[in-house]
Amino acid sequence: MSSKLDEMYNQMKIEPSIIAFCSRIEMGLKDRFEEIDKIAEFNQLKVLKAMQDNKVSDVHFAATTGYGYNDIGRDTLENVYASAFHAEAALVRPQLISGTHALTIALSGNLRPGDELLSPVGKPYDTLEGVIGINQEIKKSENKLTGSLAEYGITYRQVDLLKDGSFDFQGIKNAINERTKLVTIQRSKGYQTRPTLSVKQIGELITYIKSIKSDVICMVDNCYGEFVEIIEPTDVGADLCVGSLIKNPGGGLAPIGGYIVGKEQYVDNAANRLTAPGLGKEVGATLGVISQMYQGFFLAPQVVSGALKGAIYAANIYEKLGFSVIPNGTESRHDIIQAVTLGTAEGVIAFCKGIQAAAPVDSFVIPEPWAMPGYHSDVIMAAC
């Protein structure tokens, strides 16, 4: 077998020295990978129980069109999400086209003119700047702030993390006031270099915020973090938890979609914003993607564990090659994001070209940077 494997590596033009180098790193991660497998097993059982408790059947996989009245597949899937996240209610829809869209719906549904939004963990993800109305380029344009929270008289306040990545509790206390209606907590670092927050840290932050103002809504942007730990933000006091099915909970199978889980009142508010007041969750056809949403969610714990192993593996490889990586090769993980500082734009482009060349689909395609909507810089991506 080893000779056949060596022959295949040779056909793929992978140098033996690279194979040996990577194999040594992989062997050193055996214990850590086993711990990830245990977390995946726990989360797999959690999802399985949620599906069994809600009596998922093949009838729930049928497509609906039109208004989507009485779509039992959609309603049951939302009950499955609510059960898995230990929440009162859920909104899980293909009409939520991205994590940014799901966050926009959650914010717009629960904030009113005169309210204030607070981020106690620094600047949010790039694409939310336009949503909130803090994007300087939008402010300078002729149709400035069109559709943003700021246009509707919703103000924004931000408290940056301290230099060591910890919460500025005094700054947060000073920022909370009578107009503070909703606090948004971004779990993942996204494109930043700050630490990703653990669920335990998020719980501590929510407890502190609620001790200052008990009626504030605490919302967590959970993108990239689902199933990385055995608990989710809704287990530690989050009123709302929001994410994208294109990421972790879609299991690589959901072709579109987002979710909002949490307190029923706040989920219903979001549903009224997604569809229309008075219609809320009662409408919204699933258009033939519901089976992929079920299957993706069922497979998500295993898919996430694989992504997590890949991130840790990559961190150890690039760290040993002399690159700066965040998190480093030994730090605990709370999302699937791995940052590698390549130093130059050319380095990033070369890296993405290499990833694309190794992909099973479009391996012949050469990725190029472009001005993706919602981002300050050109973005380049490799599709595996």
Write a short abstract of this structure.
The protein is of the alpha/beta class and 384 residues long. The protein has helices at residues 2-11, 16-28, 30-53, 72-84, 99-110, 126-132, 136-140, 169-175, 199-212, 264-274, 290-320, 345-357, and strands at 89-93, 116-119, 155-158, 180-186, 217-221, 240-244, 258-262, 324-326, 339-341.
Gap between N and C termini: 27 Å
Residues in helices, as a percent range: 40-55%
List the uncertain runs. Answer: none
Instruction: Just give the CATH class of the domain at 45-297.
Output: Alpha Beta
What value does the average pLDDT take? 94
For the biggest β-sheet, the strand order reads: 1-7-6-5-4-2-3
Classify the fold: give the CATH topology of the domain at 45-297.
Aspartate Aminotransferase, domain 2
- Structural class determined from secondary elements: alpha/beta
Strand tally, please?
Answer: 9
* Beta-strand fraction estimate: 5-15%
Largest sheet: 7 strands, mixed
Annotated CATH architecture of the domain at 45-297: 3-Layer(aba) Sandwich
One letter per element, helices H and strands E, the order comes to HHHHEHEHHEHEHEEEHHEEH
Dominant shape: globular
Superfamily at the CATH H level of the domain at 45-297?
Answer: Type I PLP-dependent aspartate aminotransferase-like (Major domain)
**Mind telling me the C-alpha Rg?**
22 Å
Q: Provide a count of the helices.
A: 12
